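During the second half of the funding period, the structural biology subgroup turned its attention to how the target accommodates small molecules. The most pressing case was adenosine-5'-diphosphate, which had performed well in the primary screen but for which no bound structure existed. We therefore specified the complex as follows and requested a full 3D prediction, including the ligand pose.
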Amino acid sequence: MSEAASARSRQGSLAGVPLGPLEPMLRAWLPRQRWFAGKGRPITRLRLVSAVELLPPGASPGLLHLLIGVDAEGSSDCYQLLLGVRPNLPPGLAPALIGYAEQGPYAGQAVYEGLGDPRLAALLLERLRSPGALGPLRFERDPHAVIPAAPAPRPLSGEQTNSSMIYGDSHILKVFRRVGPGINPDLELPRALAAVGCTRVPAPVAWYEAELPGSEPLTLGVLQPYLRGSDDGWQLALRRLAAGADFTAEAHALGRATAEVHSALADALPAVALDPEQTARLAAGMTARLAATAREVPALLPYEAGLRGAFDALAASRGTGVAAQRIHGDLHLGQTLRAPDGSWALIDFEGEPARPLADRRRPEPAVRDIAGILRSFDYAARSHRPFAPAWADDCRAAFCEGYARTTGRDPREDPVLLRAYETDKAVYEARYESRHRPDWLHVPMAAIRRLSEPQRPAHRLPPAPGGAAHPQPHPKPPRRPLA
Ligand SMILES: Nc1ncnc2c1ncn2[C@@H]1O[C@H](COP(=O)(O)OP(=O)(O)O)[C@@H](O)[C@H]1O
Ligand SMILES: O=P(O)(O)O[C@H]1O[C@H](CO)[C@@H](O[C@H]2O[C@H](CO)[C@@H](O)[C@H](O)[C@H]2O)[C@H](O)[C@H]1O
């Protein structure tokens, strides 16, 4: 970065300024990051959107907050980076190294992934504890929440869409990587749920945003209580499978928890009834996604016509319309946590990371989330050798029964809607796996084959207690405690 650019950076906004000496190292580093969405497409341009020195270059370590625009063929995204700067990198931080700056205010210094440095991660927490503004950055917090000072930070390991830091096992900070204008649903929905007293989702206690000229604020990070000792639903399901153990009681409880969250979301935020035309548009969107995915994942091509049947049936079936509301949007077992007392919580309300924010914030049928969990039981059963279809079927049934117990309506009573959403999810998964985990592609492909076959006439379930003949806006159950 030039001296002039560096001077402006302290004031905050540097829209369009080139990244200077940082550019070559970031070009090489970005595509290697799990959270980088533009893999496989050459970066055509890197732009500085905003730069703030959380700690100036004179400080050691320095901490630089960057928003950078990354243009690649057919996409233009904005990413959040927290870069540490030190003259000498201690050996423990070697894995975090991005490169050495050759010129500019950081000439000769090591530039590295700031969240990998406990001192810098602690500084970020301090900023969140003391709300205020720094350049375009705004730090906010719930004034009633207790956020301890200086708990030891550690990065969350594993494959994530964003980067999370755990502080002393009491709080977890998610730093969003691909960011855009408008509130992130992962802040919006948990806050809305907390406001209506839903305890199934950890309530945000602090967050930070960027306010850039001519743009809605961009949500950059959210701090929430860390549910210590909880089991990730996906890992728990795999352990049960490996032990040949039943999971239906857990699946039933998860169905109830999911239904409670849906009911609270319908209370907290607008819920609407989609008219037949809107439903047909929903089906058309699914058909378009299928066509686009089949172009990208050729293995889908032989099944495309059969899969389309699910979406055509949805478009043709809706005389009365479909209830739509804010939902989780990317629900699967990895987004669920089970506490030692057996209660379930849902996390990560960002929605499908690849979808535009406006789509993710639109009301949708709650069955989209239900389909996500049902697909997840299939994923678990298929990652077990030998494949355990009965285990998945039992879990799917138990989950739907639990859901019906809370809402009075079993999702299987609407097989056309459920099949359309399961198909859409399997198509999404085929694209996700082909992009990120090709070894897993066979899992959604097995579902694709099944869902593309002509369906037998649906087995009618006995009506659930209080069940309605047609989809209704979500009934509102009495609030229940988390247990
Ligand atoms: N409040 C929490 N308490 C305990 N663990 C959590 C909490 N929030 C997230 N996690 C853990 O962090 C992982 C990643 O969180 P998630 O919100 O899914 O991030 P990403 O959007 O990066 O995928 C989860 O799978 C879970 O194991
Ligand atoms: O957790 P994310 O929000 O990043 O979600 C993405 O990655 C998930 C995988 O980590 C992916 O989920 C798929 O694989 C899971 C097993 O690893 C399985 O339980 C899910 O049912 C399946 O969809 C998710 O689709 C993707 O958006």
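Two results from this model are relevant to the next phase. Residues 159, 161, 234, 330, 332-334, 348, 352-353, 375-376, 379, 429, 432 surround LMANGFYV (ligand 2) (CB under 6 Å). Residues 231-451 form a domain with the Aminoglycoside 3'-phosphotransferase; Chain: A, domain 2 fold (CATH 3.90.1200.10).
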